[in-house]
Specification:
Layout lengths: L8 E11 L6 E11 L2 E2 L5 E2 L2 E8 L2 E9 H26 L7
Antiparallel strand pairs: 1-2, 2-5, 3-4, 5-6
Length: 101
């Protein structure tokens, strides 16, 4: 019995356009997040879903990561802490007389 390939659904695509200094052309980089939802195997087991992060330039994929839900959860928490730290520093810069914790 062959292994059924996972079906991924696009959840988010972030595009960034920039001017290439060497060629003078406008180029595009992108990050795409896709989800393969949990599935029941033919034996009755529940297989966890996966999240695929792909990055690329113009139309070419440059790299991809396949993450477990646990890894995605840790990534989300790390990104949340990064945003909190950024906002604390920004508040302190905008209001130098008042230091936020």
């Amino acid at each position: 019995m062959g292994i059924k390939p996972s079906h991924y659904e696009r959840r988010l695509q972030i595009k960034h356009f920039f001017d290439d200094r060497q060629t003078g052309q406008t180029r595009r980089t992108w990050l795409e997040i896709q989800l393969a939802p949990p599935e029941r195997s033919s034996e009755g087991w529940i297989n966890d879903g996966k999240v695929r992060l792909s990055s690329g330039e113009d139309r070419d994929i440059k790299g991809a990561f396949l993450l477990s839900i646990d890894e995605v959860s840790r990534l989300i928490k790390s990104l949340d802490l990064i945003v909190e730290d950024h906002e604390t520093v920004a508040r302190n810069l905008y209001n130098p007389g008042h230091q936020c914790p």
